[in-house]
Amino acid sequence: MAMAGAASPSCLFCQIARSSTSTSLLHTDEKVVAFEDINPSALRHYLVIPVEHISTVKDLQRTNEDHSLVSHMLTVGQTLLHRDAPQCKQYRFGFHQPPLNSVNHLHLHCLALPFTPRWKHVKYLSLGPLGGFIEADKLLEKIKPLSPISSQM
C-alpha cells in the first residue's frame, strides 16, 4: 500500500478531508472526498482526494489497495461530472506528477471541458519521461498489481 501517513496539520487537503475548513464537499465516503477546485481550469473542475494522506503519485505501489483507491477516486470523479455537466462531450481525469504538483496530497483532477480560458490546457499536458500530467487510466495501468506467476509449466 502507498505510504499513507497520519493527517498533516499543515496539509490543506488533510484539513479539507477532515471537514476542518469551510470547503463545501460534493462527495464524501470513508475513502475519499471531492470538492470544486478553487482555481478552475474548465467548465467544471473538481478534485477527488483520499482521506488518508498520500503525498503524490510517486508514493503509489502496485498493490490491490492502491489500485482500488485510484479506481474509486476515478469512479467518484466520473459520477460527479456526468451528474453536473452531462452536456459536455469531453472529460479529462488525471494527476500532476512531481515536481509539477502544487499540493503534496494526492488529488485527481476531474475536468469537464472545454478549458477556460483555453490556454490552461498547458497545465494538463503529459511531458513523457519528465512527468507532467498523467491520465488516470494510464496511472491505473502503471500501478496494476502484478498477477501471480503461474507455477504450471
Characterise this structure.
The chain is 22% helix and 23% strand. The model has no long low-confidence stretch (mean pLDDT 90). It is of the alpha+beta class and 153 residues long. It has helices at 12-17, 64-84, 136-142, and strands spanning 25-28, 32-36, 42-50, 91-96, 108-115, 133-135. It has one domain (12-142): HIT family, subunit A. It is built from 3 helices and 6 strands. The two termini are 31 Å apart. A hairpin with a 3-residue loop joins β1 and β2 (32-36).
Essential attributes:
single chain, 153 residues, alpha+beta, HIT family, subunit A, 6-stranded antiparallel β-sheet, 23% strand, globular
Please give the CATH architecture.
Answer: 2-Layer Sandwich
Mean pLDDT: 90
Q: In sequence order, what are the helices and strands, one letter per element?
A: HEEEHEEEH
**Shape type:** globular
Low-confidence stretches: none
Main sheet strand line-up? 1-2-3-5-4-6
Write the layout of secondary structure elements.
Blueprint: H1 12-17, E1 25-28, E2 32-36, E3 42-50, H2 64-84, E4 91-96, E5 108-115, E6 133-135, H3 136-142
Antiparallel strand pairs: 1-2, 2-3, 3-5, 4-5, 4-6
Question: In a few lines, what is going on in this structure?
Answer:
By secondary structure, the chain is α+β, with helices and mostly antiparallel strands. 22% of the residues lie in helices and 23% in strands. It has a single domain (12-142), classed as 2-Layer Sandwich (HIT family, subunit A), CATH 3.30.428.10.
